[in-house]
Amino acid sequence: xxxxxxxxxxxxxxxxxxxxxxxxxxxxxxxxxxxxxxxxxxxxxxxxxxxxxxxxxxxxxxxxxxxxxxxxxxxxxxxxxxxxxxxxxxxxxxxxxxxxxxxxxxxxxxxxxxxxxxxxxxxxxxxxxxxxxxx
Length: 135
Known about the structure:
The protein is α+β, with helices and mostly antiparallel strands. The protein contains 2 helices and 7 strands. Helix 1 (45-59) packs antiparallel against helix 2.
């Protein structure tokens, strides 16, 4: 799974809703087809990996896939049945903060129909609304 090798601060504050529209990373650069978010939110490293696997299984060694997001925000979790207080929990997993309009995945080297179906399978694994786009 994706996670940073090193972080400046071990634990970060969660922050509120992911607002606004993406200006950076909002255009297809590497491939011909892409999966674009319609809503903002947090995508975990497990979700990214599950989506990547779904796409690669469907295209069966055909084409190239680019992952345009990286989970660099640590999320903490307290142990089960831990009483209130006693400080912040330990780092449990990493998430990527995505704004609406951000390109999550790109694909090239396959037919449009295959790319569309593969991206649809990937979108089921993610926690944000997405749409298929082409260059």
